[in-house]
């Protein structure tokens, strides 16, 4: 399975399949993380994060994969791990080449999204469900009101708005706490 | 609220590309012009991206499951091949025996494989089941290896002369107490009480014998046929050890979760602990994963890098005279206020009026409070040179302060101070602390990383004197680091008079690595080696009870022209010749 075919899978929207192919790289990443003192669970998390970052970048119109998937994922994984360990030496940051700087930025950018994700997960089950139906399943408020037994479309709509605002509030507070 | 809902809806429409071109244009213009709208938009996108992670995670998980299933099916195919192979070998071995017996082993093998067959049937087999399977597969794999090894052994034992192994040092210790042992060549072992267990996992008591062999010298390594490779990757060695523990000639093991601390007297950096396994005449080193480097003992700590930590984020702010003994936050505010007051009092607005300025004037001043508390590096920016000069003059008058500290270390603290005044005479200095803190907080990460890198720097500048590593295993132990090399090429040499047992090793001049070769016929293959490295090839031949040696210095290149002229040496001579190489390490 070469990179081209995997890229094709991504383009066709067959994300699952593409990820399953990319998992062939996992043992190498696991070895990397283990050699840096991580556990198997860490390796699995790092790899998942790297795939998410890869997918996110592939969806950007101006993104071009300049290296093999392996090189990309390896480099990104390294940054993710270092970031969780907070181990950046100055020399390293100085010596980064253009690609690496980009990878590094992707990792930092993803951290914001992680916060947003956590905010989402802190919502009540019903809120999560509502937002999921609206944004991921692209259901209309009418259908949502049906499925989730809201009295009217209007109530569903208002409820969705409240959930959204709440999530954003949680995000803001968590952001301030972090910084 | 209704308006807000509409905004969100508009953003959703935009993201889902439900707007007309004109509307898109309006939308984009609004993004540029309306800051709060822009913020709303970005927050919303951010949140959606965060939510999307949930989807992605689910996809990754599904992908993983598909991968594991696929891998497992591959394993299964592989396993069945191996089971058949094992069966064949078994049959072959027993073929000399009565023919009736021949069928039995096959049956046993098939029985063994039955559990696998059973597990294939449930279609959505969970991870757990899969894991159990692989472990079984591994067991079968190991079986196969054992069989192979048995086949190889007789071939390697043709050698007539045996080069004696290093005489081990034997130390008797009492396991009831903690022991510290210093070996002949400087290795220090620190062993906790009750560290050893016997075959039955029972803790051993009384006296035990430790057998230790140390390999720091190249000659010792070559004589013991040691090399420094980890699954094809190069290692640079800081010394190898062989440790064995015995009681009444029974081998002992290290208790689980017990570690021996080993201090290697090496000056190399970034060493890790490896354990070795012999495989086909060469040793392969594997990183001991569960053990970490404990300590690098340093000779001296030098170099304090100049570091700047902004005022708003520093742990201990510089203290303006009179602001001592306040809480952290109050010190910060006090110092900040006193500086502002000082500037306000001393700034000569009259001078500015004199040059005919009118209206609101702004001077941006940046300076540093250095490690000794002095004000340095004053820079000001304003529309008028005169204002800048006046600002510089006033700032330079600031009194000496107690320097700011980050992690207990005095550092330079940059301080930015806008001076704003009406050119009619009244001046106001400073701006809200929060404002500044927001802006400065982006520096904090950079500063922190700089600080931590500074720690690293100390390590790299200081000379490492020795290494404390921990091992969880006895046997072959190596204090090594990986070497990454570029520009590799395939390196093989040919030896014409190749009768007898010949070993060719490659030693690198620039780092402590010994590379073994694999022989096939007259060709000795080193696989991939770095290009243009100065190396020494050491060939030792054992033939008809005699030892021959040749040492060739060369550089690695494509199609090397290396000729060996073997000279006969006796054991002593061999040792002497090899000892000459010790200066390389």
From TrEMBL, chain A:
Entry-linked Pfam families: Sigma70_r2
Protein name in the entry: Sigma-70 family RNA polymerase sigma factor
GO aspect biological process, one term: DNA-templated transcription initiation
Gene3D superfamilies registered for this protein in UniProt: 1.10.1740.10, Winged helix-like DNA-binding domain superfamily/Winged helix DNA-binding domain (1.10.10.10)
InterPro entries: RNA_pol_sigma-70_dom, RNA_pol_sigma70_r2, RNA_pol_sigma_r2, RNA_pol_sigma_r3/r4-like, WH-like_DNA-bd_sf
Domain RNA polymerase sigma-70 region: 26-84
Gene Ontology molecular function, alphabetical: DNA-binding transcription factor activity
Automatic annotation (TrEMBL), chain B:
Family annotation (SUPFAM superfamilies): TolA/TonB C-terminal domain (SSF74653)
Keyword terms, alphabetized: Membrane, Transmembrane, Transmembrane helix
Membrane spanning residue stretches: 72-91
Keyword Transmembrane helix: yes
Top-level taxonomic group: Bacteria
Name of the protein in its database record: TonB C-terminal domain-containing protein
Organism of derivation: Seonamhaeicola maritimus
Lineage summary: Bacteria, Pseudomonadati, Bacteroidota, Flavobacteriia, Flavobacteriales
């Amino acid at each position: 399975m070469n990179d081209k075919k995997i890229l094709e899978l991504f383009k066709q929207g067959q994300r699952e399949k593409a990820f399953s192919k990319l998992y062939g790289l996992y043992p190498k990443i696991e070895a990397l993380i283990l050699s840096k003192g991580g556990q198997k669970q860490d390796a699995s998390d790092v790899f998942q994060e790297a795939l998410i970052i890869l997918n996110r970048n592939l969806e950007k119109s101006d993104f071009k994969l300049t290296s093999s998937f392996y090189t990309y994922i390896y480099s990104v994984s390294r940054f993710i791990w270092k970031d969780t360990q907070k181990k950046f030496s100055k020399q390293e940051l100085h010596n980064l080449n253009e690609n690496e700087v980009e990878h590094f930025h992707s990792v930092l950018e993803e951290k914001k999204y992680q916060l947003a994700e956590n905010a989402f997960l802190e919502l009540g089950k019903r809120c999560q469900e509502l937002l999921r139906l609206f944004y991921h399943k692209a259901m209309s408020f009418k259908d949502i009101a049906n499925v989730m037994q809201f009295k009217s479309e209007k109530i569903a709509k208002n409820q969705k708005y409240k959930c959204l605002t709440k999530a954003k509030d949680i995000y803001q507070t968590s952001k301030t706490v972090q910084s | 609220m209704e308006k807000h809902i509409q905004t969100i809806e508009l953003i959703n429409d935009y993201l889902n590309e439900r707007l007309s071109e004109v509307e898109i244009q309006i939308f984009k213009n609004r993004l540029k012009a309306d800051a709060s709208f822009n913020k709303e938009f970005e927050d919303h996108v951010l949140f959606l991206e965060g939510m999307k992670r949930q989807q992605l995670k689910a996809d990754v998980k599904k992908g993983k499951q598909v991968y594991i299933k696929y891998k497992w099916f591959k394993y299964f195919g592989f396993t069945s091949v191996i089971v058949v192979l094992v069966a064949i070998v078994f049959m072959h071995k027993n073929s000399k025996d009565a023919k009736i017996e021949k069928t039995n082993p096959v049956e046993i093998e098939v029985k063994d494989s039955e559990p696998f067959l059973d597990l294939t049937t449930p279609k959505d087999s969970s991870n757990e089941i899969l894991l159990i399977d692989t472990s079984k597969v591994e067991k079968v794999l190991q079986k196969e290896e054992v069989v192979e090894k048995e086949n190889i052994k007789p071939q390697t034992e043709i050698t007539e002369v045996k080069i004696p192994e290093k005489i081990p040092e034997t130390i008797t210790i009492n396991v009831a107490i903690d022991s510290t042992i210093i070996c002949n060549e400087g290795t220090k072992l620190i062993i906790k009480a009750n560290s050893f267990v016997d075959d039955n996992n029972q803790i051993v008591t009384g006296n035990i014998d430790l057998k230790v062999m140390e390999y720091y010298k190249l000659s010792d390594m070559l004589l013991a046929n040691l090399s420094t490779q980890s699954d094809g990757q190069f290692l640079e060695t800081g010394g190898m050890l062989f440790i064995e523990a015995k009681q009444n000639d029974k081998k002992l093991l290290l208790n689980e979760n017990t570690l021996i601390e080993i201090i290697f007297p090496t000056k190399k950096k970034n060493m890790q602990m490896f354990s070795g396994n012999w495989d086909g005449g060469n040793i392969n080193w594997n990183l001991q994963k569960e053990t970490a480097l404990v300590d690098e003992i340093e000779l001296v700590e030098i170099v304090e890098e100049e570091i700047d930590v902004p005022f708003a984020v520093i742990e201990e702010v510089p203290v303006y005279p009179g602001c001592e003994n306040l809480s952290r936050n109050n010190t910060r505010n006090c110092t900040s206020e006193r500086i502002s007051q000082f500037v306000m009092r001393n700034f000569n607005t009259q001078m500015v009026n004199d040059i005919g300025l009118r209206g609101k004037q702004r001077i941006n001043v940046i300076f540093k409070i250095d490690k000794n508390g002095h004000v340095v590096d004053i820079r000001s920016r304003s529309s008028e040179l005169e204002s800048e000069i006046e600002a510089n003059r006033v700032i330079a008058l600031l009194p000496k302060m107690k320097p700011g500290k980050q992690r207990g270390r005095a550092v330079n603290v940059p301080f930015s101070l806008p001076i704003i005044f009406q050119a009619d005479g009244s001046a106001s200095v400073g701006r809200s602390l929060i404002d500044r803190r927001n802006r400065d907080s982006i520096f904090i990460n950079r500063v922190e990383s700089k600080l931590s890198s500074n720690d690293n720097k100390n390590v790299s500048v200081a000379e490492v004197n020795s290494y404390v590593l921990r091992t969880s295993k006895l046997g072959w132990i190596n204090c090594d680091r990986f070497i990454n090399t570029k520009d590799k090429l395939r390196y093989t040499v040919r030896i014409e008079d190749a009768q007898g047992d010949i070993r060719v090793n490659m030693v690198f001049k620039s780092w402590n690595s010994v590379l073994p070769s694999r022989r096939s016929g007259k060709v000795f293959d080193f696989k991939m080696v770095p290009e243009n490295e100065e190396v020494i090839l050491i060939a030792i031949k054992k033939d008809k009870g005699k030892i021959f040696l040749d040492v060739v210095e060369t550089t690695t290149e494509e199609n090397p022209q290396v000729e060996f002229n073997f000279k006969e040496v006796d054991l002593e001579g061999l040792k002497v010749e090899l000892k000459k190489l010790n200066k390389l390490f």
